[in-house]
Amino acid sequence: MPRENKPTDVFKYIDMKGGDINVCWPWTSKTNAKDGRPYFTVNKQRHPAYAYVLSLVKEEKKTKDQMVLHSCDNLICCNPHHLSWGDHQANMNDMKERDRHGLPIIVVRAIRRLLDEGKTQKEIAILYGVSRETISAIATGRNHSKSRG
């Protein structure tokens, strides 16, 4: 029978870069195959690892409508100095404000051209290795405003 994790065991799977709060602290264990997110199981409950770290370090539990916002846009970063609690609207505002998804503007332009040529969002997502939702956000201007690039 596998050993149960203790709450602080989460830090065993994080490269804390010697405590440098200015750089990302990547998750070093397995990530979810579907979404690439790091998960940590404790007390038979599975949590996004970065959310678990944030709740431990800041001693704040998330409320039902909150999610973790990453100031670094690094999905596997568990540095609590890069994380904060926010609601869906705060996440969407942040995403739009910073043209997030890590795609260079030249790629966004190429995606728009492919959309204009009639390629499906799914085809483009597969081509660029991103989610269909990312392509949809670019197509509708939810991210990467249409006036740019």
List the helices and strands and how they pair.
Blueprint: E1 39-42, E2 45-48, H1 49-57, E3 66-70, E4 83-87, H2 88-97, H3 105-116, H4 121-128, H5 132-140
Antiparallel strand pairs: 1-2, 3-4
Helix pairs in contact: 4-5
* CA-based gyration radius: 18 Å
Strand order of the largest sheet: 1-2
User: How many angstroms does the end-to-end distance come to?
Assistant: 55 Å
CATH class of the largest domain: Alpha Beta
Keywords:
149 residues, alpha+beta, Homing Intron 3 (I-Ppo) Encoded Endonuclease, Chain A, 2 domains, two-stranded antiparallel sheet, two-stranded antiparallel ribbon, 5 helices, 4 strands, 32% helix, elongated
Written description of the protein model:
The protein is of the alpha+beta class. The protein folds into two domains: about 5-95, Homing Intron 3 (I-Ppo) Encoded Endonuclease, Chain A (Alpha-Beta Complex); about 100-140, no CATH class. It has five helices and four strands. It has helices at about 50-55, 90-95, 105-115, 120-130, 130-140, and strands at about 40, 45-50, 65-70, 85. The strands form two sheets. The chain has a two-stranded antiparallel ribbon with strand order 1-2. A two-stranded antiparallel ribbon has the order 3-4. Strand 1 (about 40) and strand 2 form a beta hairpin. The model has no long low-confidence stretch (mean pLDDT about 85).
